[in-house]
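Example record for the data management plan.
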Amino acid sequence: MGWSPDGRTMYFVDMMPGRILAYDFDGKTGGISRRRVFAQVSKDEGIPDGLAVDNDGGVWVAHWDGWCLSHYAPDGKRIAKIDLPVQRPTCPAFGGADMRDLYVTSAAMELSNDQLAKGPLAGSLFRLRADVAGPKAVRFKP
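Corresponding structural encoding:
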């Protein structure tokens, strides 16, 4: 899940139908409403997995079995596809001193020897530089 910079939209990956959903979010009550499809991922591009939202409201989504990461504009249009050297990227997250490092985890589970030969870096952590920063981490206080 991720939230827009103003906190009014919550994004959620619905993996098996291959879509990213958006909801109106009420920060005071935690309520969600007005469910809608933000973006649809075609089956030939893998399954959407983890996501992260940048400070401009862009949504970054990893494609399990898709060898890539997608960057969507706030209106749901894909503005970039970043190819990765692994079949199963799992989740992007912003970090670094200026929050412009985009870290992407990946998985090697259940890959055959042939698949691992094509993507020997499976299971690695990758760092990319984004043109826009992600939000600072927020500490949870119980």
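Summary line stored alongside the record: The chain has a mean pLDDT of 96.
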